[in-house]
Amino acid sequence: MSNIxxxxxxxxxxxFYSPVAYILISFFLLITGWFFGTNLFLINEATMRNIFSIIxxxxxxxxxxxxxxxxxxxxxxxxxxxxxxxxxxETQIVVGKFFASLVLLVAAILSTxxxxxxxxxxxxxxxxxxxxxxIGLILMGAAYSAIGIFSSTxxxxxxxxxxxxxxxxxxxxxxxxxxxxxxxxxxxxxQYISIDFHFQNIARGVIDSxxxxxxxxxxxxxxxxxCKSLYKRKYL
Amino acid sequence: MIEVKNLTKDYGQLRAVDxxxxxxxxxxxxxxxxxxxxxxxxxxxIMTCFMPPNAGNVYIDDLNIYQNSIQIRKKIGYLPEGCPxxxxxxxxxxxxxxxxxxxxxxxxxxxRIKEMIQTCGLKxxxxxxxGELSKGFRQRVGLAGAMIHxxxxxxxxxxxxxxxxxxxxxxxALIKQLGxxxxxxISTHIxxxxxxxxxxxxxxxKGKIVADGxxxxxxxxxxxxxxxxxxxxxxxxxxxxEFESLPNIDSIQLYSKENSLYKFYVNFxxxxxxxxxxxxxxxxxxxxxxxxxxxxxxxxDIFRQLTEKVEDNE
Lengths: 236, 314
What we know:
The complex is a heterodimer.
Chain A lengths: L1 H16 L1 H25 L5 H19 L1 H9 L1 H6 L5 H22 L1 H10 L4 H28 L3 H17 L9 H10 L1 H9 L5 H24 L4
Chain B lengths: L1 E10 L2 E11 L4 E5 L6 H8 L7 E6 L2 E2 L4 H7 E4 L11 H11 L4 H14 L15 H13 L5 E5 L7 H14 L4 E6 L2 H7 L2 E6 L2 E7 H7 L3 E9 L5 H6 L4 E10 L2 E9 L5 H11 L2 E7 L4 H15 L1
Parallel strand pairs in B: 3-8, 3-9, 6-7, 7-8
Antiparallel strand pairs in B: 1-2, 1-4, 4-5, 9-10, 11-13, 11-14, 12-13
Helix pairs in contact in B: 3-4, 3-5
């Protein structure tokens, strides 16, 4: 456990001591702010619905950018050898890195609380739905991060890691967007696998255990793959 | 004690390490010598549990790399080849990070870091970013990281590559000092390094051990010839021929001839010391003898001889 926290802390320091975290968060706020600001007085409703429907899309770029360097960079610079010859297991490395990117992600998500404050000043937003939305974003972000970490273990090139995670995420994201063309029995399966469907459920204010279990299983599966992939270097 | 047993490692078609075995008793400084691509780094990576071999095992005391990977890693301090470090961290954060990974107790982390800064001479760069440091300092930071948990065994992969002569001398002195209480295994392709620091040398070529033993022993067993260097001033063109006509001489190598000053080597069989005869011969000719000394066969010669011999067999 102390190893995991040591690795997480080191990663978090790397994010926040360098411009990486600030650039990513500013970028994130800029895009979300534009969507928030342009629609606010047009719709004339105290709601975060617009933001919550656009953030999952932004995450498709944003989260691979956070996670792409985590393990790929260690491999490229050779520090993976340093890390893997200390008494640390692959699981501890992967979980440590995952927590670190989660912290950066949550920091970015929480920065959008500014919009909630603005809404609260201008009107009376529904706190319950907004809270559910935030829980959904964090769960969804965690799932994306796990996919990103897994992709980062595959290559020693950050760009390749970015592209792989981008593709995995976008496929999972688009699965339920073409349901009109697909038989119903298959459609419901695709819908359950789709990463966006569950977020839309939660964002509606319904926190269902099925949705939570879905995200947690995605996290678990991809972190498991990441451990295996990191372990596989031993058999190259 | 380290015991390497029948280690074999393939990278696809290429056999990097081929069935090698050796043991290292506690407290010895061993040089692991070989040309580039001989399988040194691979062997070290296996010993430090970075990757498993295709066959064979490594025992440290009664632990082995398959069942006790984590315990073995705790006993070993390892400086990987090229000394990879986190460039964006500063020195003290890095040492703290390594100390935490090494499970050093919270209370003594600070003390250990201080000691390492002292031993490795890092006082002036403690708050510097590692990426900004010179190669010599980086190497020392790597060493400090490798030793921070006070390991019984220190494995250093080319610890002096890329350093300037002063830094090399410093690192060697440091290694020698450490070797008094620890088992040290240094891999290198620089022969002087081994001559300067090691008690024992293991020479490896194409994944196989070609020689293993104390330096002096290897040096002795590999030259069956003695070699004497001469500088003689003589007003004759026949000097070399005259030497060649002497009995018991195997060969003569002319090094240089300027005017009447001859510089040359005389090789003769080890069984019989003919130096008195040679001296008497020169005296009888009334040549002027500037210099006469026995040449030590350097490790370099032996190394070349050993690693080329394997090639011939193929």
